[in-house]
């Protein structure tokens, strides 16, 4: 079994979870944690740490954070001293959806690599010039 945490500065994590619920319905075993002004990132890590203690070693924890090297990510990374904890930074909706929906059938590391690639592929630069170039080279077909 896996449990998922989305952790961010502000409400980004809650927004991603809300979007997931809209797209695929309620997702089990996933929670959003927000670092609000005046709070400390270690308080968020303590919530996850308590869940790890209560759940036991057979449960895998996957924690998605917003910014690599940020305070939330740094606090969550300390939890990797547990062998059943993985932290993935740079979360976006595509990355989290890919991991949660298809990653449950894969080992964590393989699922993480696939999800990170999906997240990266979902980032596309587009403006009128680029759009016109793509239409010329692809015709009226799909431009991505």
Automatic annotation (TrEMBL):
It holds the Pfam family EIIA-man. Residues 1-123 form the PTS EIIA type-4 domain. Keywords: Transferase. The keyword Iron-sulfur does not apply. PANTHER family: PTS PERMEASE-RELATED-RELATED (PTHR33799), PTS SYSTEM MANNOSE-SPECIFIC EIIAB COMPONENT-RELATED (PTHR33799:SF1). This is PTS EIIA type-4 domain-containing protein.
